[in-house]
Amino acid sequence: MVSEASPALSPPPVIELRNIVRLYGQGEAEVRALDGVSLQVHRGEFVAIMGASGSGKSTAMNVIGCLDRPTKGDYLFNGVEVAGLSQDQRALLRRHYLGFIFQGFNLLPRTTALENVELPLIYKGLPRDERVALARAALAKVGLAGREGSDPSQLSGGQQQRVAIARALAGAPMVVLADEPTGNLDTRRSHEIMDLLVELNRSEGLTIVMVTHEDDMAAYASRLVLFSDGRIISDAPVARKGA
Amino acid sequence: MLWETIRLALRTIRRNVLRSFLTVLGVVIGVAAVIAMVTVGQGSSDSVTADIESLGSNVLMVRPGKQPMGPGMQDTAPAFALRDALLLAELPGVQAVAPIANASATVVYGNENLSTRIVGTSNGYLTVSNWTVSRGRPFTEAEERAGAGVCIIGETVREALFGSTDPTGETIRLKAISCTVVGLLESKGASSFGDDQDDIVLMPIRTVQRRLTGNDEVALMTVSLEKGTSVEKSIAAIEALMRERRRIRPGEEDDFSVTDMKQIASMLNGVTAVLTGLLSAVAAVSLLVGGIGIMNIMLVSVTERTREIGIRLAVGAQSGQVLLQFLVEAVMLSVLGGVIGIVLGLALALVGASVMDIPFSPDPMVVLMAFGFSALVGVVFGYFPARRAARLDPIEALRHQ
């Protein structure tokens, strides 16, 4: 480990949660979804988060993804405190530094693959030709060159998830957050998607945080974090599949 | 960014053409109604003004009774006498005076007959109403003085009684009078109120008084002034003369009125304006209903597209951008409705103007205002749904099925 005495030599963790508490409801109905979670994710890591439903893993993802705000605790993103940011400030953070992959793909219906991938770039304010170039490159990276004009309804589940991955990549984020990315896919497609994520992680140094409930999929990650009752009960490197 | 938002809104509207059209129907009807009403109203008021100006802006009307008289109002003030007209004609600046006694009768020639308007007057009537005799001649002084059985007929009367033969020199009968046609009036067509101005028979006023009305009353006098004469001064002079003639003591009110055509025109236009205003108010209510229709559909749309909103928020849209997206969509819808309404309204007004035989005079200001108002409807009624969209929680929105 690099000591804390020489910060200049070590970049700060891209994600650092310190004692995060997230409460829902009030009084009797109060639920401690996160009960003192601390976690560091460094650049280039591929972290899998597992846990039973209700263990707090989804809440943790929402906090990490700046979609939700912790009740207590600090969240340093790339060394900057972001726990107290307003909704619009968090939107800017998502826009410029985060990419999302969802279980249900969440593509815009009746909108071509290219336009779906362009979406975050529109909010980045990029001119049209630059957007198209970046979106094409992202689609090519996920193996969908030639399917730019396809509507999500014309694509298989695996292809739709690839479009979603391209969308997450297009804006060159610091971290990609994947919430059960293979939950809606059959086994073969699931492995293809995981291979793609591993490939991106290795060749491009993409930082990935993924929630899953399948051991098979978690095995692709380099590190496994286990949640239970709003706490982290285990955090260990994984002997990577195929590594 | 705004351009992207507009493009997106247009695409969303195009995707649901039928629904978008039905949504904006209220605005279309409202705007079309306003445009049609105002344009037709403007046209009819233009035509009234033009009619009155064709009479000459230097024409005054002298009537018994207090002014202004609306239709159906009666006054017990005494009528004028022929001598009043003769004295008026001597005032400085007066070009011509037409004393008028009206009657109506059925005129007969051979087997043909027509019920028409009989105007007892003098040659002054031709000067005042800027009317010429196209065939034959006006009355002679002797005919006027004697109350001879002569008449000048309008084009409609000629057509009904004589067909293609020359009427001058022929004798027609009205009631018990035989009367020789000495002249034919040039055709004037319909007035702006739709009545046929050529459906008329002019006779010397003495003839009408003696043989038709049975009294020596003059119901009305029209006066034309020479060019360059001050209308105000002439009115004052006429009023002074008539007060003296009618023995009205100082301090007492006039029992007659002198109006110039501008006053009459503005009075008529006032009526048109009130009507236009009332109808436009009804149309404005329709616009309001149209706005509520847009709000309704936009609320449905926000609910339908909750997931889309969630995705947009997740990839970094700020709430203001989501608000703008839905607001722009609502404004585009209502502006689209406004444009369709303007086109439809102008088309309706064009048809209406040609049917009513009035000028088609679209007012660019009104078109601009209708456009602006429809955009305003979009902003006002689009704001609430857009705010609802902007306030969605991204996590909830993404979870929405």
Gist of the model:
The complex is a heterodimer of chains A (243) and B (401). By secondary structure, chain A is of the alpha/beta class. Chain A has helices at 57-64, 87-97, 113-123, 128-141, 157-170, 187-204, 215-218; strands at 15-24, 31-41, 46-51, 72-77, 80-81, 98-101, 175-179, 207-211, 223-228, 231-237.
Q: What characteristics describe this protein?
A:
heterodimer, A: 243 residues, alpha/beta, Rossmann fold, four-stranded antiparallel sheet, 26% strand, B: 401 residues, alpha+beta, 2 domains, 13 helices, 57% helix
Q: Can you put this structure into words, describing what you see?
A:
The complex is a heterodimer of chains A (243) and B (401). With 243 residues, chain A is of the alpha/beta class. Chain A has one domain (44-67, 86-237): Rossmann fold (3-Layer(aba) Sandwich). In chain A, 33% of the residues lie in helices and 26% in strands. Chain A has seven helices and ten strands. In chain A, a hairpin with a 2-residue loop joins β9 and β10. In chain A, α4 crosses α5. The longest helix of chain A is centred in the C-terminal third of the chain and has 18 residues, at 187-204. The radius of gyration of chain A is 18 Å and the shape is globular. With 401 residues, chain B is α+β, with helices and mostly antiparallel strands. Chain B has two domains: 2-50 and 266-399, no CATH class; 78-254, no CATH class. Chain B has helices at 2-15, 17-54, 82-89, 124-128, 141-146, 155-162, 205-213, 231-245, 261-304, 306-314, 319-356, 364-390, 394-399; strands at 59-64, 94-109, 112-121, 133-136, 150-153, 171-174, 177-185, 200-204, 220-225, 256-260. In chain B, strands 2-3-8-5-7-6 form a six-stranded mixed β-barrel. The A-B interface holds A 62, 65, 67-68, 87-88, 91-92, 94-96, 100, 102, 106-108, 110, 119-120, 122-125, 167, 171 and B 1, 4, 15, 307-308, 310-321, 394-395, 398.
**Overall pLDDT metric of chain A:** 91
Average pLDDT of chain B: 87
Task: Tally the structural domains of chain B.
Answer: 2
Cα gyration radius of chain B (Å)? 32 Å
Strand order of the largest sheet of chain A: 6-7-8-3-9-10
State the low-pLDDT regions of chain A, or none.
none
Helix-residue proportion of chain B? 55-70%
Strand content of chain A: 25-35%
Which class do the helix and strand fractions of chain B yield?
alpha+beta
How would you spell out the order of helices and strands of chain B? Answer: HHEHEEHEHEHEEEHEHEHHHHH
Number of helices of chain A: 7
Q: Rough shape of chain B? A: elongated
**Helix percentage range of chain A:** 25-40%
Count of alpha and pi helical runs of chain B? 13
Helix/strand-derived category of chain A reads alpha/beta
Strand portion of chain B, in percent?
A: 15-25%
Instruction: Please tally the β strands of chain B and state the result.
Output: 10
**CATH class wording of chain A:** Alpha Beta
Kindly, what is the distance between the CA atoms of the first and last residues of chain B, rounded to a whole number of angstroms? 28 Å
Rg over CA atoms of chain A: 18 Å
